[in-house]
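[Discussion] Sanity-checking designs against the backbone

I'm trying to build intuition for which residues belong where. Below is a structure token string of 388 positions. I'd appreciate it if someone posts a full sequence so I can compare it with mine line by line.
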């Protein structure tokens, strides 16, 4: 019979330091996997990462549980029966306790209000994602967030118990799944009752704050992104600092930053279209058109397709038969626009493309593309021949 590791964190989530006896120490690659008779280290599970900390001077890199045996991954070897001093990284652990308890409060409230179940839970270093089995509107989310924080103000007691099978039968709790092990029930007085293996804070007041950051439909339900405790405070500090920075840049009041950005965007849009209108008109002055038999060609620099097209339209409207406008771009290639109201420009375009390794096309009366001509002289000769 294998003796399972005694889990201190299940009964005492505030235990930061402990002494234990080494049961075994197995080497695999450059790491050691240490089994103790008891531990306060929470092993990865239920959507929460493993605790970090130290065993004597050795850093605990990972903690896993398998068949009730908990192993601590280290880079240091330990002797069997040796006594070790374990210390968990309390800041990391407490932050996770705040987060995890916050998630229970929120999930409990969603369950009570809408009878949805929590079908997925993931905890990253800060943000938590919780998947609920049904749809939630913006008003629902606002209500859930408000009630979650009300639950914090109540400073409700959070307890972990191991009810007997008969007691469990009668109990209405979330995460009811068949497991062989004895079920651990985490109860938040008057708010939630849920099967859970993780350590929690003792009262909801310690969660500090619950903030829903985002929510969106996910499969047939809703995914909620949330923060709790110190992580929510850090997020608030970050957002406040960036808001302050924007206030300076925009000369806006604290509550008006979004409006100021919207106004700026409208202004940028208006300036862009004004700029485009002016640059198209300017393009007409940058052309140096040569006329051949009532048609026109031009080779210029730095004009884009919009500008070339504007010029071509302008010229054909003035009665130009065929218009071939080229402009050298920054890479040394030539953009072209060919237009005509009376002649099919496709033969001209295919001649240009085949002679100068070009790409592009269009309709019978308009085409555009790009050529890689060796020199302007070569281009001029071919274009002039096409218009003769
Ligand atoms: Zn849980």
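Best answer:
Here's mine. Compare freely.
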């Amino acid at each position: 019979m294998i003796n399972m590791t005694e889990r201190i964190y299940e009964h005492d989530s505030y235990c930061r330091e402990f002494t234990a006896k080494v049961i075994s120490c197995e080497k695999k690659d450059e790491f050691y996997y240490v089994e103790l008779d008891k531990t306060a280290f929470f092993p990865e599970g239920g959507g929460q990462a493993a605790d970090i900390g130290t065993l004597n001077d050795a850093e605990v890199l990972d903690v896993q549980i398998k068949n009730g045996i908990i192993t601590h991954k280290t880079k240091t070897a330990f002797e069997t029966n040796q006594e070790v001093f374990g210390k968990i990284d309390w800041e990391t652990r407490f932050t996770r306790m705040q987060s995890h308890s916050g998630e229970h409060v929120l999930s409990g409230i969603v369950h009570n209000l809408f009878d949805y179940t929590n079908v997925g839970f993931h905890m990253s270093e800060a943000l938590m994602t919780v998947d609920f089995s049904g749809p939630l509107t913006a008003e629902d989310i606002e209500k859930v967030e408000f009630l979650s924080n009300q639950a914090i103000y109540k400073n409700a007691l959070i307890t972990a118990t191991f009810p007997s099978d008969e007691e469990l039968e009668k109990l209405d709790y979330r995460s009811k799944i068949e497991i062989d092990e004895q079920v651990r029930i985490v109860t938040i007085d008057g708010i939630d009752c849920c099967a859970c293996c993780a350590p929690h804070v003792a009262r909801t007041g310690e969660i500090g704050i619950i903030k829903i950051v985002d929510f969106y439909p996910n499969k047939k339900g809703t995914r909620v992104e949330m923060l709790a405790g110190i992580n929510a405070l850090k997020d608030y500090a970050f957002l406040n600092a960036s808001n302050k920075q924007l206030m300076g840049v925009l000369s806006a009041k604290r509550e008006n930053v979004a409006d100021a950005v919207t106004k700026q965007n409208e202004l940028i849009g208006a300036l862009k279209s004004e700029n485009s209108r002016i640059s198209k008109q300017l393009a007409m002055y940058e052309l140096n058109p040569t006329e051949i038999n009532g048609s026109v060609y031009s080779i210029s620099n730095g004009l884009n397709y919009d500008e070339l097209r504007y010029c071509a339209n302008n010229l054909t409207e003035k009665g130009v038969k065929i218009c071939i406008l080229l402009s050298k771009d920054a890479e040394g290639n030539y953009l072209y626009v060919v237009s005509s109201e009376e002649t099919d420009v496709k033969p001209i375009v295919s001649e240009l493309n085949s002679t100068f390794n070009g790409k592009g096309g269009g309709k019978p009366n308009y085409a555009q593309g790009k050529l890689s001509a060796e020199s302007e002289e070569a281009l001029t000769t071919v274009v002039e021949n096409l218009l003769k």
